[in-house]
Write the C-alpha cells for this entry.
Amino acid sequence: MKAISVWDSLIRFFRICLSDAIKVSCLAMGLLISLLLSASSLAQNDDRFVLQLKWEHEFQFAGYYAALWQGYYAEQGLDVEIRSAITPDGSFLAPDQQILQGNAHFGIGGIDTLVGRGRGHQFVVRSPIFQRSPIAVFSLDSVPLDSLEQLSRLRIAAVTDDFMRAQIEAMFIANGFDPTSVQFLDSEASVDALVAGTADAIVTYDVSATFRAEELGVELNSLSPSDYGINFYGDVLYTTEEVLEANPEQVKLFVDATLRGWRYALENREEVADRISAQLPRHTYRYDDFFAYNRHFAELIDNYIQYPLVPLGHNQPERWQHAYLLLEQLGLIEQEFSVDDLLSSLARPPVETTNVAAWVVASVMLVLLALLLIFVRPLYLRLLIAAPMLILIAEQLIESRYRFLLGEQQRLEVSEQLSTIRYQLESRLSNNLSLINGLSAFIASNPDFSQAEFDTYAATVLAREPSLINLAAAPDLVIRYIYPLQGNEAALGLDYNASVEQQPAVQRVIQTGSMVIAGPVDLVQGGAAFVGRAPVYTMDEQGNRSLWGIVSGPISVSYIYSETDLFDPTSGLEIAIRGRDGLGAEGEVFFGASEVFDNPRSVVMPVVLGGGSWQIAAYAYQARAAAPGLLLMRFISFIVAVLIMAGLYFRNRTVQKERAYEQVIFRNEQFLREVETVSRVGGWRLDVDGVFTEISIQFIRIMHLPQARQVVSLAELCDLFTDETGVVFKSLLERAQSRGDGFDTEVRLQRRSGEYIWLHVRGEVVELDAERRELVGAIQDITQAKEADSLIEYQANFDALTGLANRSLFRDRLDNALAQARRGSTKLAVLFIDLDNFKSVNDNLGHDVGDEVLIETSRRIRNCVREVDTVARYSGDEFIVVLRDVFSESAVCRIVDNIVAAVGDAYTLRTHQVYCGASVGIAFFPDDASDADTLIIKADQAMYEVKKSGRNGWQFYTDEMQKKSERRHHLFNELVTALNEGDLSVYYQPIKCLTSGQISGCEALVRWRRRDGTYVPPDMFIPLAEESGLIIRIDYLVLTSAQQFIRALNAELGTRVGLSVNVSTRLLYMRDESAQAWFYAIKAPDNVPMTVEITERVLVEDATRARHVLDELSAAGVRITIDDFGTGYSGLSYLSRFPVQGMKIDRSFVAKIGKVKTEEALIETMLMMAEKLNIHVVAEGVETQQQLDFLSAAHCDYVQGYFIGRPMPAEEFRDYLIATLVR
C-alpha cells in the first residue's frame, strides 16, 4: 500500500506537469529571453531609497538635493526620498533610529556610526563627504579662548545626544586633560546662549555660529579640535550591512549618483543654495535671512569637503581607527569591533552567472515535450515520455548550480592568496611609513635641531630600512634638510607652495593632518618610488599647537614588490593594483591590467596605507574542473529516470483494474442526485482556486443559474447578488477554506432584482492530499421559513394597529436608553400621553373611526420627535415617548408643545371631522427617577395632574421645573411687550483692522432695557426668542435699524464702515412674511458692506437648505462669517463646502493668550488655516494689550473686544469713530 501511495503521488505530480505543459514551455522560452536580456532590464528597475538627514534642510546637504533635482538618481533607476530630521510638528528623527526601524535606508552621520557599531548595530560607512568635522568651540570676544587650559575652566554648552560633546572630550583626552573635570552643560548650544550668559562656550557648527554672530552683531573667539590633533570626519553617508547585502549594485549606484550631485552643487553653489532656501521648509531653527545663511554655508563648505584637494568620498581607515581609540577611552564603544567592518565595501558579491546552455537545453526539451503531448493521446504514454524529459531538465539546472558553486570555491581560494599579498604590502609599507612618522616625532620634540643631528638621525633610519631612498624635512614648507645630500642637491630650497606638481599632495597632508602616500612616481636617477609625507606639529609654552612643516621620504617600488608574492609564478593569479597617490578606488591602476577589476571572477581587497589606501584585485587563470561530479550527477539522473518509467508501467496496470469500479461509482452518484431532488437540497464542491467544480441541479435552481452551467466561479456566483451581500457569502466560503474548518450557518442575500433570499449553507473541508483540499457542502432555500419567523417576531414586538412599539419592546428600548444615559452621564425624558375626548369618539362614531384616530395620532407624534427617540402605544388611547440625550428642559418643552398642537388639530376621517387633545406628563432621568418603572409611574402621575387642571396641556413632574416654566412664560410675555413698545435697541461694537489700524466695521447687537432702567441679559431672552419665533422680528429690527444708521454715518464721514449682523437658524429656514422682509433688506443695494454671522449649528441642522440660502446671500454680495469658531461642531469641511469668507475666533480662546500655550497654538493653527483658505479672521473678546500684540504678531486680520471698544449706542459709536479717524 505504501508503494502504491508513492506512485499515486508521482502520478499526480506528472499530471500537474502535463496539464500545464504548453504553458510551462512558453514560460520557459520567455524566461530564456529575459535571462539573455537581464543585464539591460535590471538596469531599468526602479528601486526606492529613503535618505534620512541629520538636521533640517540647508546647504549642508546640497549634494543630495542636486542629485535628486538634476535627475542623477532617476538616471540610475532610483526613486529617492530625502527626509528632514525635523518634522512639521517639531519632532526629531534620529538617522540611526530611522535606519534601525526600517524607515530609512541611508543616513547622514559622523562618529555616531562608530558608536552605533559598538552597540551592535551593523552600520557600514559608504562615503565620507565632509573630510573635516565642522564642529568647533566658540566664546564671546570678551571670553579668552587661546588654549585648552583656558577652555577647561569654562562652562561649555554641548548637546550630548548628537556626539558633539564627545569630539571635545576626545580633544581633551588626546592632549592630556581629564574631560570629567570639565563642566559641560547639556543645554542649547547657540550664540544666543552665549549672549544670554547661560554658557561661557558652546560646541556647534562653525558655519551656524559665525552666521548667527553676524546676525546678532557680536564677535566670537573659536577653537577647533583639528588644531589639537582631532581630525574626525564630518558628515558621512552610511547604511547597514542588511541593505548593502540585499542591494549591492543599487547602493553603489546611489553613492555614485550622490557624489555626482555634490560635484554639481559645488560647481553651482549659488543656484543650489537659493533653491534650497526657496523650496525646502524649516520647522524649528530659523534664521533672519535663510537665503543669506545658505549662501554663507556654500562659501565655507570647502573647509569641510576639501575638494578638489581630496577626492569626494575619500576614506582613510587610520583616521577612523584613531577616532575609535579615543571613543573607546571615553567609554562610548560598548562592544569591540574591527574598524574594517565599519568601512567594509563587501568584496564583490558572488555573481551567479546564468548557464545559458543549460537553459537552452531545458527550453528545447520543454518545447519538444509540448509537441509530443499534442499528438500522443493516452495518458500512460504521455507519462512515459514526460518523465525522462523532466528529469533531464532538472539535471541540467542542478548541473548549472554545481558549476556556480565550484566557481565560488575557487574565489575563496583566490581570496586567501590575495590576503597574504595584501598583508605583505601593508607590513612593508607600514614599516617605512612609521620610520617617516618617527622623523616627524623627532622634529616635533626637537624643532631646533642642527644639520648634523638631522644627518645622524636619517643615517640611522636609512641603515635600518634599505627600501627608503632618502629623508627630507621642510620647515615652513621649504626643503631645508635632506639626507643623503649627494644626488639630491637640486631639491634643497624647494618651496612646496610654489611647486605646481607638489603643492596638491602637500596640501592633502596639511588638510588631513596625517601621513599621506603619493605615487608611484618615476625617479630622476632611475626606477620608481612611493613618496610618504607626514606633517610636523609643535606646541608652544601655552599649549598652542602649530604646523612646523612636513617630512618626506621616497620608498623604492622595486624593493617593496620584491618582498611580496606579486611575481610568484606558482600562484596562478592575474593581479592588479589601483589607487595611485593613496586615492583608493578613485586612483589610477599602477600595477597590472585595469581589466582585472572588471572581471566578474575577481576578488577585490583594500590595502591601508597611512592616510590613504589602494585596492588590489586578482582572479585565477584557469577555472576548476568539474567533470567527475558532473558524470556522477548524470548517472544518478539516468537511474532515477529508469526507475520512474518502470514504476509508471506497473502503475498503468493498476489503473486498468480501477476502471472496473467506475460503473459502480456512476450508479451511486445517480442515486444521490435523485435523493437531492426529493429533499430540495443542492450540493456543491469548491476548489482552492475559487471554482465550483461540481454543482447539482437543485443548486442551479436555488441560485437561478442557467441550466447549461456545470462549472461556475465563486466570483461569478456572487455577482448574481448585490455587492454588500455577495461579499458576505464570498467571505464565508473563503474563510472556511483558508482555516480548514466546517461551518453550518444561515445567510441573507439580495438578488440584483431586489429580491431577498435566505439560505441555509453547510460545508466541510475535504483533504484530497497533502497539498490540495476542497470545500464540499449543501445549500437549502429557507426564505419562506424566515419570513414566517419575521412575522411572528414583528407581532410580538409591535402594535398591530399603529405599527408602533408595543409595551414589551418599549421596555427593552427604555432600559437600553437608561444604560446609555448612565454611561454618558446624559439625561432622558419620558412623556406619558393620553388622548383627551377619545372615549366620546369611540362611543359616538364607533371603534373603526377610533382606530383611524389612533393611527393618525401615532403618525403625528412620530413626526414631532427625532429618529433616535422611541414612540410606543402603551394601552388603548395612551402613548409613551422616550426622548434620548436631553440637554435642556426648553428642548423638551418645544417637543411637547409640538405634540400638543399636532394632536389638537382637526382629524378629518371619512365624513367626520373630529377634535381631540393630548394631556402629557413629563419625567426626567436622573432628576425624577433612576429606573424604568418609576419613570413611567411619575410621568403617568404628571399626566393626571394635567387632566385635573383642564387637559390639553403638559406638566413636569417636579415643582421646580414647573416654576421655571412659569418664569419662562412670564419672560416671553414681557419680551413680546418690549418688542411691540420699542424697548429693544441696537448697540454697535467696533471691529478694528490690524493691517491698517482703522475701524473697518462694527457688529450690531440687540439690547433690552426695561422701563425701570434695568437690562435683561441677551443670553436670557435670545434663546427664548429663538424657540418662540420672535427672533425673526428681532433680527429684522436690528438689521433695518443698523443699516439706516451705518448708511447715514458713512455718507456723513465719507467712510465705508461695514456692518455685521447675527442671524438665527429659524430665520434662515423660514419663508414667512417676516423672513422675506429680512432677506429683501439685507440684499438691497447699499453703501454698507454687509456681513452675516452664523453659528456652526446652522450648517449642521439642514446642510442642503443652509447651502442654498448662503449661496443666495453670497451671490447678493453679502459676506458669510462663522461666529464662535472652534466651540461648536468644528467641522473643517464647512469652510470648503459653504461660501464662507470669514470666521470669528471665540473669546474663550483669546482669553487664554499668555496663560495656556496650547490655546495659543490653536489660535495660530486657525490663522494659518484661514490664510491658506483665503479666509479673513476676526478675534473676539480682546481685552488686554498682550492679547492684541499676540494676535498682531500671528497676522490676525481683525480684532473685536472691550480693549478696542465696548458695545455702545449709535451716537456714542459715531463719536468713537470720529475720534479714531482724527488719530
Observations:
- Residues 472 and 482 are 4 Å apart (CA to CA).
- Residues 802-957 form a domain with the Alpha-Beta Plaits fold (CATH 3.30.70.270).
- The longest strand covers residues 528-539.
- The two ends are 111 Å apart (CA to CA).
